[in-house]
Amino acid sequence: MATTTLRSETDVVLIGAGIMSATLGLLLKELNPKIKIEIYERLDVAAAESSDAWNNAGTGHSAFCELNYTPQLANGEIETKKAVKIAESFEVSKQFWAYLVEKNLISNPENFIKSIPHMSFVWGEENVDFLKKRYDALQQFGLFKGMEYSEDTEKIKSWMPLVMEGRRESQAFAATSMKIGTDVNFGELTRNIFDYLKTLQGVELHFHHHVKSLKKQEDGRWRIKIKDLATGDVKKVRTNFVFIGAGGGSLPLLEKAGIPEGNGFGGFPVSGQWLKCINEDVIAKHNAKVYGKASVGAPPMSVPHIDSRLIDGKKALLFGPYAGFSTKFLKNGSYLDLPLSIKMNNMIPMLSAGFHNLPLTKYLIDQVRQSPEDRIQALREYLPDAKMEDWVLEHAGQRVQVIKKGEHGGGVLEFGTEVVTAGDGSLAVLLGASPGASTAVSIMLDLVQRCFSEQEKTAEWQEKLKKMIPSYGISLNENQALLEEVRNHSADVLKLVKV
Questions:
Q1: Based on the number of CB atoms within 10 Å of its own CB, is 169 exposed (0-12), middle (13-18) or buried (19 or more)?
Q2: In 3D, which of 322, 326, 323, 341 has the Cα closest to residue 391?
Q3: Along the 499 residues of the chain, how does pLDDT read in single tens digits?
Q4: DSSP code of 78?
Q5: Which of 62, 181, 203, 205 gets the most CB atoms within 10 Å of its CB?
Q6: Is 472 exposed, middle or buried (0-12, 13-18, 19+ CB in 10 A)?
Q7: Pairwise CA distance, residues 90 & 441, whole Å
Q8: Rounded to an integer, what distance in angstroms lies between the CA atom of residue 151 and that of residue 123?
Q9: Domain definitions of the chain by residue range
Q10: Residues 331, 397: contact at Cβ < 8 Å?
């Protein structure tokens, strides 16, 4: 059957139907209701990859308990810069979500966000010393006001009874607790946003469509060739601006775009697995997100945690993630993703990054070789009385860590998110992993400033941005009164426990 070629013209194309595209699409539509947006997703449903609750995105990262965001430096001091930035970014996300609820753009916030304490737990004298230093270092910032620290057995038992069951009390341990933590189902939130966007004039959402090529035209616009996987029809779209938020699929599309700013970027895929509790009595005993310290050589997103979540309206209890290696860039990707991503312009950075991260390679090999007994033994470090029959293995999503050129020509493996932007602002690509979803609003606001700079500076857009994000342009870390105001307002609108 002959292939039909279709053509369309639009202002914005969003590639990937995850939390990033949903957030950017809604921001742009609120700022300019007349803007025309087309969204293309390879799968047949939104938020099925990185944004899905079972694929790791579910904590509501706010740096309250994630110890990898506060590394201890060689001089013994605790680095707090990243934790402060993430904590502030999450407050920005909550402000935006509260705005959406207040304007009835999305409803039933209790379906995607819940209040739950965020805790850290460590054992051993050295780790206890680290946690105390971390707690002391964070106390200088209002963002962490209300955090509690304890080495008292009874106090910690009251915070996390399941973690303390069967634990030797002669062992040194310590914990911190932040009551205003949250659990966020980003899959549910993403689908809610797209459900609203589909009702707006000038927005088209296409599932089961694969982007085959991107090419910059002489007039500065982009021509994108897209295949409808259901019919085989090919569509050619011309657009002023392209955002690629396709999770692990972003790197291959960046390479297809061919912008010079993308030279040297590579990716290192890391897969994940959870142990999922199937014993309702055990699930009911735990109501917190409890994070520990990562093993030596582990990627930061593999920090172990025993995690209460609300998924599809039901309470769940997960432990992990256990890291693994796959050459796929997406859970639904191809084993050829990694080899096909290696190009002449990124070969040296990728080889260099691999050579300088041999402990990570060894760690991943050890993780892949783990038996069910090995995984249960790791769980028992957090739940000493854990029984194998209460837990089953659940496959999580794929993460692609960013590799980029280092200062001296080598390669650097980055843990986090990075936006690569064309020099003229006509294309932006999101690469990387955690804490992406939780900081999506801040990331997309930064993108708006970069790629829509002239409009962003106008009084009209500034006024609208202030309505959506009351703290827009102001450091919450440096303005305690405003922080408390927006925190309380967000908590009220989103039906969370107030500060």
A1: exposed
A2: 322
A3: 446 677 889 999 999 999 999 999 999 999 999 999 999 999 888 877 766 766 664 567 899 999 989 999 999 999 999 999 999 999 999 999 999 999 999 999 999 999 999 999 999 999 999 999 999 999 999 999 999 999 999 999 999 999 999 998 788 999 999 999 999 999 899 999 999 999 999 999 999 999 999 999 999 999 999 999 999 999 999 999 999 998 778 888 988 999 998 887 777 676 777 899 999 999 999 999 999 987 655 555 557 889 998 887 889 999 987 766 666 656 667 766 666 666 666 565 555 655 555 556 555 556 556 677 888 888 999 999 999 999 998 877 666 666 667 666 666 666 667 899 999 999 999 887 666 889 999 999 999 999 999 999 999 999 999 999 999 999 999 999 999 999 999 999 999 965 4
A4: B
A5: 62
A6: middle
A7: 8
A8: 10
A9: 265-411
A10: yes
Count the neighbouring beta carbons within 10 Å of the beta carbon of residue 77: 11
In angstroms, the CA 132 to CA 148 distance is: 11
Long-range contacts, 156-159 (Cβ 8 Å, 24+): 156/121, 159/117, 159/119, 159/288
Tokens of 246: 């396709």
Angle at 408 between CA 402 and CA 412, to 5 degrees: 15
**Strand boundaries in 340-390, DSSP class E:** none
Amino acid at site 492: D
For the CA atoms of 478, 484, 486, 491, what is the dihedral angle to 10 degrees?
Answer: 140
37-40 and 118-123 strand pairing: unpaired
